[in-house]
Structure formats: structure tokens, C-alpha cells
Amino acid sequence: MANDPDHSRGSRLLATRGLSVYYDQFQAVREVDFRIDAGEIVALIGANGAGKSSFLKAIVGQVDRIEGAIDYCGQSLTDMSTPAISAAGIALVPEGRRLFPSLTVDENLRIGMSIGRRGPITLDQVYRWFPTIASRRDRLARSLSGGEQQMVALGRALLTNPRLLLCDEISLGLAPVVVGQLYEFLPSLRSNGMGLLIVEQDVRRSLAMTDRFYCLLEGAVCFSGRSKETDRETIMLHYFGV
Amino acid sequence: MSNPSGLVPDFPSVSVAADKARRLRTLTLALRALLFVAIVLLAAGPWLFDLNQLTLLTEFFTLLVLALMWNLLAGYADIVTVGQHGFVGVGAYAFFGLVVLAGLDPFLSIILAAVITTILAGPALLFILRLRLAYLAVGTWVLADVLSLIAGKLPGFGGGSGVSLPILVARAFGASVSQRVVTLYILTFILAAAALAATWLLLRSRVGLGLTAMRDSEEGAKSAGVDVPRMRVICFLWTAPFLGLAGALVTLQKVRVAPSASFSITDWTIFIIFVVVIGGIGSFEGPIIGTALFLLLREYLADFGAWYLILLGAVSIAVILIEPRGLWGVWRRFFPIDIIPVSHRSPESSDRTNPTKALPLEPSRPQRAETGENV
Amino acid sequence: MALELINQMIQGALIGGLYVLFAIGLSLSLGVMRFVNIAHGDLIVLASFILMSFSAILGLSPFIVAALLMPVAFVAFYALQRLLLQRLVGTNLLGVILVTFGLAIVIQNGLLQTYGPDTRKLSGGALELKSISIGGGLSIGLYPLLVFATAVVVIFALDRFLYRTSIGSRIRAVADDPAAANLIGLPSAKIYGIAMGVVGLTVMSAACCMSVWTNFDPEIGPSRLLIAFEVVVLGGLGSLWGTLVGGVIIGVAQNLGAQLDAAWQILAQHLVFLVILFLRPQGLFPRGPRT
């Protein structure tokens, strides 16, 4: 499925129905209903252990046992392998970045291009977005700072020209300034019809940059809605009160 | 099954499970009784079996000891060695040297052979502790090769082709052939029983608990205060005397020492690995089943030479890919019991959880564990 | 006396080239798939016997047969990886060791059944007899020199392949982190297969060089594995050129030991390995050419 730059805003990209994730007997995600449309930025908020990472991994096919449905542009993802899901246009920027340590920055980025999805994002474009890593392109990826590595990880995912970008805690371990830069950059991606799903622990930031949000508590959605219609205090209430 | 008094609600699934648990307990008790009877029969072996059978059983006990030791290291302590034939050979040569060249008392020589093997295990540990995983496995192989080559150069031991045990020494274990067979049988029986008991005790002790914790999660075990290197050292040193004793008894069985026989990688490592894997690694029942099966098959396939090894190799591969826990694992799928209980978990809990957990062949980087870190 | 010593060291260094060829495939599978293929040495021996059979059937020189069989070697190793070894990727070490161990035993005994225990050697024709004088009364055989040159060429080619091609960087990426590679859409199983196919090419080269140089029989597989392993570990995992140094060291140690007797040939090899491993467990040039 080639990336379609004329893909209109508002069309359904991904929807889950009753999605549950199990590790042996332990249920990490409980019957989550979720949706995201093209051009939307959606937040997934929750504390450690709430099931956020498991939810993302279920989407890209990295968990063994799931129940429920995941629909993506008319396809069901539940039986697809991770490389196939990636080729279909879903990219995950994993927690901890997971760059390839023995490859240079440039090589790490080019790997992203190797699945050959056509689209507007090119290597030059990524270097323009992130000039600091452009100057370090022949260095080994592991020698870069945390913020720079995060940019490489993001760039690598973007070079697969995804229609849906999943970001798992990309602000972890980064200086606030760098986090601010990243989160200023991300919304610009939706102009191509890309949907973004941002997993974050920082509630304020999440609400500030997203259209809608979901709160996960012990694997289930405890609260959801439009980001502009709520605030941090209301969300905390849902965790501890309601 | 309804409740006559009507006081306790009727939950059919609970009573079915209770039935099953009861049946399994009965089966466990029955099998344990059978094992006990078998041990008693074997102890009375010299009166019950003929010389041929005693010889076969002697071999069974020797191989069983080796299998238990390899299983302890590879199945419980995550130390995969491909060189235990080195220590067997050391025990064999030490015994020969002490009894023939130094002229010591034969029975004392057997004990001292075990001591010497354990002492030699010390320097070997220096390498064990430095190496991990694949390097460790091949490193032990190299060490065994070195020991074998050195043995072939020692004066008085017949060099590369070895030398026979003098008849005078052999006679110390019985004036006639049949007496020697009986003596050897009793010695190996005692060794096998001791090896079983000692290893079982080790695994039931704190060390065993630490090893289980280590296999579940090395990081978690370390943070709980389990001294992982120390566990490995203890296990490694635990096996050394038994391997040495087995080597000494092998010399008595073969009535000679030679690098190819005493340090035979085929007999003391390759066969043993296959035996444990096919029988069931990481359990006590597995090595016993595997050794018994191995000897039974060998009696039937004795003429087939290389084909026997090919079959063993192919079956091992199939076992690892299909049911990593071996024949005992297959049995456990239907009857999840422990005849020789080693686990510190209660029987009920090990039924509930994934039965392949705490297995040495589980994925080391399973996708689950990667994702399970920060759920 | 000193001249003789130098001569032996040169001969040892040259046979080190052959050992490098043994080792380079193991280095790749250890470095990429991250497991020790216990059957590596037996696969080299298997390839040698296949070379022998085809050479006899076709009536061609083993070098030509080897060249013709290269694609076959690639496909065979690709299939070995995809069909058998792939099941073990990501599992822990025990399964890998046991399966490749089983494979080694099957190959050894299969060869014994098929060809018998006699030692064999293939003829390289006139090439084997030529020697070159290098002054000072010393001369080296042309064939050993060619084998050493082959080893250098193979290392160079492999270095280019791994670090200058996109398939090479994909192989290294999958080696680093198969799960992350999957996320980017890299088909890790196929890539492992390709890496193993390349190992097959090195195995065929090693078999070709070995079968003409020395005697071989179905049971020398394990000793080839130990040599290859020691060379890889000495050189430092991940370092292709380090493997060359490791090979030379092992070759020289072996040759000097052989001056005493056959047992010392192997003892010297092992002892040098153990000593260096003890002093520097990570090998001489760990981490590879790009630090």
C-alpha cells in the first residue's frame, strides 16, 4: 500500500475493538476500544505498567497473545507479521530508541528506507529537519547524545514513510529543551495525512499537543475525550477518584 | 457432583480439578513407590542378577552419574559444557597413577582420584568464570583436549595407546572375575546413589533456590542478593569429584587407561548430552529415563555402528525443536507430576503457570520479556 | 638454526591463511547470528568430500569444481539457516549448541558410512609442487602462498560486503537487534539466510584449499572447529582483520609445536590460545575495525 499524500483528513486509519493483550496469564491490556484518523494526533496517557507499551506492541505485532480486533485501513493486523505491518505503513519509534549500535547515523537512517515505501519523506528531508545529526552522519549512532539518538530513531521511522506513526515515550531521558523541540516538530507531520499516536507520561505536554487522548489505568481505558476539553487535574481525578 | 448438605455451592469445575489433582497425587505416590522398589531391587542386585546383567547395570550407573552431572550444570546452572570427558579422564588417570605407580591402597586411590579431580577443577574454574555461553562450551572442550594430550605424554601411562591395569591391582577388587564384577557393581551403585542424593540435596538447598531464581531472571536474582558467580562455582565444583570417581570406576571397568578410552569424548560427553536431552533436561527423571533408553536401544542396535550415532543425533535435533523437555516433558504434558521433586514451587502453582517456564531452552530474548519490561 | 626457526615460522604463518579461511565463516555466524555452529568444521569436511566426488565424476580440477559449486554452497547454507537454524534464533544457547552438535554427529557419521574412514587428499596438479625462493636460502611453496592470498582477499571482500553495501548494513542491523529490525520492516529471517549463505561460500573456499593442501577424513571436523574457534576468539570477535592475525598466531604456534611431535602440535595451539584468552579474554582486536 503506497503512501497516498492526498489521503484526506478525517478518514479512519486505525481502530481497535475489545483489544486485550496477555503475557502468559497476566492481562496487560483490557478490551480497549481505540481509534485514530488520518491527520490526527492522539495521546495515550498512563503510569508505568498501565499497558501503553503493550498496546503499541500489539498494533505492530510484537506480542504473542492478543484478543480482539485491530483494523487498519480495511486490513486486520492481528495475524500479520511485524515486517508486513511495517510495510503496510505503521512505524513504531520504540521505547529506548533501539538504534543499531554498530551502524552509523547515516546507515541507521538508510535502513529505514530499505522497505521501499514511497512517500514525501526523504533522507535529505530528515537531515533538514534535524541539522545536528546531519553533521554527525558518519559517526556511530551510539556515540551520539540522547536527544540526537532520539532524532535518529524518529528519522529512521519517518523514512519508512508511514501513514501511522507510533511514538513510545520518546521524551524519556531527554533534556526539556530537546523534548520541546521534538514536540514542536511532530505536529507538522500531520499535514501529509499522517496520524500520530503519542505515548507519554507527562500529562500536560500530552494534552497540549494532541487532538484527543486516552487514559489507561491497569490496562483499561478509564477516561478519553478531546484534549482541549480537559486538563491535568481532571485526569488525575480519574486516576484516583472517579 | 452435587453437594448433599446444600451448604457449599456446587462448582463443577472445582470438583473436576480436585479429582484430577487427587488422581495425579495417587499416580505420583505409585510411581515413587515403584522407584523405591527399584532401588531396593538394585541394591540386592548381586543376589538377583547374573553377571551379564550386573555388567550392564554397572554401565548404567556410570552413565547415569555422568548424565546427572551434565544435567546439573547445563539444565540447572546454565553452564553448558562440552568437556566433561576431561575430568572423567583425570579421575581415570589419577586412580591408575595412585594405585599402580604409587602403590597406594586401591580403595583409597579411588577416593583420592576424586580429590585430585576436584583440585584440578580449581584452575579450570578460572576459565569458566571468565567465559560465557558459547565461549564457555568450546573452552571446556579445548581444556579437555589439553588434558587428554598431556595424559598421553605422561611417563608410565603407556603414552598414546595406554596401558592395561595390572592383574594384581584388579585382584584387589575380587579374586575371581565374577567377584570383581560384583564389587564393581556395588561400587558404581553406591556412586550413582550418592550422586543422585547429593545433587538432589544441592538443588533443594539455598543453592537450588538461587539457581531457580537465576533461571527465571538473572537480573532479578542478583538484585535479590543471589551471588550468581558463586552459585556457578559451587555447581561446577560439585560435579568434579563425581566425575573423577566415575573415571576411576571406568578404569576398573575397562581394565586399562588410554587417552582415547579414558578421555573419550564420544562416550563421556556426546552420548551423555544426547541421553540427557532426549530423556529430559532440567529434571531428575530425564537423565534416568534417557540413560535407560540409551542402553536398551544399544543392545538392539549394536550392529549398526555409525547409524546408531546418526539416529541419536537426528532424534536429539527433533527433540529440541519439538519438545525441548524431552521424553519426560512429553510425559509431563499428560501427567504433570514430579517423581523426584526438586522444584521449590508447590505442585498446584506449577500447573497453573506456563509449564515451560524455568526451562533451560526457553527463549532468552522472548518478545514478551522485551515488551513486558515497561508495560 | 635461527634460519630454520624463521623458516618454520613462515610456513606456520602461511598455514595460518588456511586457518583464517576456516575461521572466517565461524566469525560471521558467531557475530551475526550470535551462535556457535558446532557443526562448522564438519560442514567444511562435508564440502571437501563433495568436492572430491564431483571432481572425480566430472574429471575436473578441484578448484574449478569449487568455483562451480559456489552457488550451490550459498543456496545450501541459506536453506540450512531458513529451515533448521532459524527456529533457534532468539532462543538461548543450549538449543543451538545441541542442534548443531547433533548436526555435527550426523554429518560425521554419515560421511563415515558413505566414504569410510580412509584419509583422502585431492590433487592440485603442478601447483602443489612449485615453490618460490625468497632469499637467504629460504623458499616457500606457491600453493601455501596462494591460499594465504586467498584468505586476505576473502577478508577484504567480506569487509567491503559488510561495511560498504546496503545488504551488509542490513545484516549488521539484524545482528544488532532483530526486533528493532523487524520494526523497520527488515525480514530478519531472510537476512540471516543471506548471511549464512555467505558463510557457505567461505566454507566452500576453505574446503577447496584444505582438501588440496592436507589429508582429510570424516572425523577431522571437530579439530577444524576448534582451530576456527580459537582463531576467531584470539583475533577478537567482530574483527575481520583480527581473524587474520589470530590465524597466523595459531599457525605459527602449531608449526613450532610440530617440531617436537604430533601431540605438541595441537598442545601448542591450545596452550597459546588459553594463555592469550586468559590474559585478554576479549581477544586481540575486539570490536572490529570501526571503533
Distance between the termini of chain A: 43 Å
Helix content range of chain B: over 70%
Average pLDDT of chain B: 82
CATH class categorisation of the domain at 12-97 and 163-240 in chain A: Alpha Beta
**What characterizes the major β-sheet of chain B?**
2 strands, antiparallel
By DSSP, the count of extended strands of chain B is: 2
Q: At the fourth CATH level, what is the homologous superfamily of the domain at 12-97 and 163-240 in chain A?
A: P-loop containing nucleotide triphosphate hydrolases
Textual characterization of the structure:
- By secondary structure, chain A is of the alpha/beta class.
- Chain A has a domain of 164 residues: P-loop containing nucleotide triphosphate hydrolases (Rossmann fold), CATH 3.40.50.
- Helices cover 30% and strands 28% of the residues of chain A.
- In chain A, helix 3 runs parallel beside helix 6.
- Chain A is globular and about 45 Å long.
- Chain B has 18 helices and two strands.
- Chain B starts with 11 loop residues before the first helix and ends with a helix.
- The C terminus of chain B is likely disordered.
- Chain C has one domain: ABC transporter involved in vitamin B12 uptake, BtuC.
- The model of chain C has no long low-confidence stretch (mean pLDDT 89).
- Classes of the chains: A alpha/beta (242), B mainly alpha (375), C mainly alpha (291).
Core attributes:
heterotrimer, A: 242 residues, alpha/beta, Rossmann fold, 6-stranded mixed sheet, 4-stranded antiparallel sheet, 9 helices, 10 strands, 30% helix, globular, disordered N terminus, B: 375 residues, mainly alpha, two-stranded antiparallel sheet, 18 helices, 73% helix
